[in-house]
Amino acid sequence: MNTNKFIISLFLVCTMIAAFLPLTTSHAASLEQIVQSVSNDTSSNHAANQSKSLLDRLFDLIFNKILGPVFNIMDKKDNGNSAVVVKPVPSSPNYATSDSSVLRGKVIVLDPGHGGSNPGAVANNSKEAENNLSVSLKLRSLLTQAGAKVIMTRDRDRTVAAEGSSLGQELQARVSIAEKNHANIFVSIHSNSNPNPKIAGVMTFFPSGKANLLAQEVQTQILRQTKATDKGIAPATFYVLRNTSMPSILVEMGFVTNYQEAALLRSNAYRDKIAIGIYDGIVQYFNKS
Questions:
Q1: How much is the pLDDT for 79?
Q2: Mean pLDDT of all residues belonging to the chain
Q3: Which superfamily does CATH assign the domain made up of 100-288 to?
Q4: Selection from 214, 282, 274, 220 nearest residue 248 by Cα
């Protein structure tokens, strides 16, 4: 016996009495309406009711005509005023379909840009150094689970070189970590800024003449996850790109100077999407290289 019939059975005696007594609730059908409804149903659906048991008809009468209106348990369409809204369960992250086993044993250096006394770009309550570190830590977890050896240039809010060092020394400290550990790839993660607050989107840079495949795969997969504006990939001469010997890229995840994008970059869910996108791009790169 299903749940509805079980409930009906418990109230059977009471509801049979209620069928012959005036119903006080303003939402319940009157006895005359119930009888008329049953009569109409019987005359118009006589052939179908021949195969329907008396007990089933009784349940239908009690549930739809009496208990439904009284206890508000009828199966009705949502009119937009329902107190309980059932939301669909979010789908699982759409990871790359390529074989992630290619990451096993790969040495990957992640470089969260800025940190410590150098917060990077700050606007719209979004701090670049914080965004960079959060996404990098999420990415490290994904890569480690796939068997890669991940080395972070920093794993907390600090500079990489000794505090008070010059910018050149700070950048060289990051490069040295990648070189010393013979990294297979180097990924530097940043947030962007622009005087024009309307500008938004993701862009990925690579050293001229190399790593364009890595940049393209990462850019493609970030866009696939985030649906952000595509600002494209481009060669660049940033210190960490031109001074690393392995394939290297610098990812600009979005513009903190754009109000909407700054809010997204502060969002844990959006940071997840970016991390997944970079991860997928790295997987695709190693599968194609």
A1: 33
A2: 78
A3: Zn-dependent exopeptidases (3.40.630.40)
A4: 214
**pTM exceeds 0.90, yes or no:** no
The two tokens of residue 146 are: 């796939």
CA atoms within a 13 Å half-sphere pointing along the CA-CB vector of 236: 18
Please list the residue range(s) of the chain that carry CATH number 3.40.630.40.
100-288
Q: What share of the chain is helix, strand, coil (3-state, %, to 5)?
A: 45, 15, 40
Residues 9-50: tens digit of each pLDDT: 545 544 454 444 443 333 333 334 433 443 444 444 444 444
Token digits of residue 270: 């959006």
Q: Which long-range contacts (CB under 8 A, 24 or more apart) does 9-14 make?
A: 11/62, 11/67, 12/62
The three-state secondary structure class of 90 is: coil
Provide the 10 A C-beta neighbour count for residue 240.
23
Task: Return the residue matching tokens 């059908």.
Answer: 29
